[in-house]
Recover the amino acids of this structure.
């Protein structure tokens, strides 16, 4: 657990989470999946997958190329239900003499404010509703564990431990995402500051306008960035400039009429 909480690298913290779940199951987990919410699409993305203790597949969902190495597997209905409702989904309590087939545990990756939040099995229901409502904390994804029925002892203590692993992973993901965003913003500011220095070297309006368009494109990437010059009173547009240079009056009028 300490390895999960002390790293700001998404790939490493996911790897450590998989290791913790593997140890929790004493190597009996058939498959371990970690689904993480994509901040852009709000969909669940498979970011960690381990089959039968083999080398896990790990994907950094914060990478610039979001589709590189992305697994094609999609979350099933139980995983989506767990994510949307911030609700743990558990198999019904089983009798050892009839335990056959594969069972699945789904836990929401929620940064719990109260670390005493735990899970308990319901003898009659297949779904487990946690005491935490969806509004209490942000749900970042789902931890899914597949196992052969009858191979795991799902006692209250064991479920509390697995919930702690999921909560720890959620807290680490929050820290990693904040660190990533802070680093990306800082790099962007440094790049903009470096490019803005060229404004003082511009010796003509044309060069100044082109450079301003270039700097603005770093803030808001676009194929059409324009600067309009106005008269001394600020009432009438005299010209339009883009990064490529001045725009003819006819084209500029057509653009303004469309707007």
């Amino acid at each position: 657990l300490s390895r999960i909480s002390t790293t700001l690298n998404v790939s490493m913290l996911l790897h450590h989470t998989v290791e913790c779940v593997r140890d929790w199951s004493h190597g009996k987990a058939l498959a371990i999946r970690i689904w993480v919410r994509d901040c852009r699409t709000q969909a669940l993305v498979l970011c960690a997958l381990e089959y039968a203790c083999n080398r896990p597949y790990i994907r950094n969902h914060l990478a610039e190329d979001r589709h590189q190495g992305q697994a094609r597997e999609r979350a099933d209905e139980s995983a989506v239900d767990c994510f949307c409702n911030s609700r743990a989904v558990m198999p019904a309590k089983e009798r050892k003499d009839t335990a056959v087939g594969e069972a699945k545990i789904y836990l929401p990756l929620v940064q719990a404010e109260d670390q005493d939040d735990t899970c308990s099995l319901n003898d009659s229901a297949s779904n487990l509703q946690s005491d935490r409502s969806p509004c209490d904390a942000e749900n970042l994804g789902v931890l899914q564990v597949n196992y052969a029925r009858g191979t795991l002892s799902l006692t209250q203590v064991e479920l509390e431990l697995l919930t702690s692993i999921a909560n720890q992973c959620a807290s680490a993901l929050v820290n990693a995402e904040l660190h990533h965003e802070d680093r990306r913003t800082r790099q962007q500011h440094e790049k903009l500051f470096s490019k803005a220095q060229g404004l003082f070297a511009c010796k003509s309006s044309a060069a100044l306008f082109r450079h301003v368009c270039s700097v603005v494109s770093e803030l808001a990437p676009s194929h059409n960035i324009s600067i309009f010059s106005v008269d001394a009173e600020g009432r009438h547009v005299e010209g339009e400039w883009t990064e490529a240079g001045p725009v003819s009056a006819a084209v500029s009028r057509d653009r303004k009429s469309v707007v």
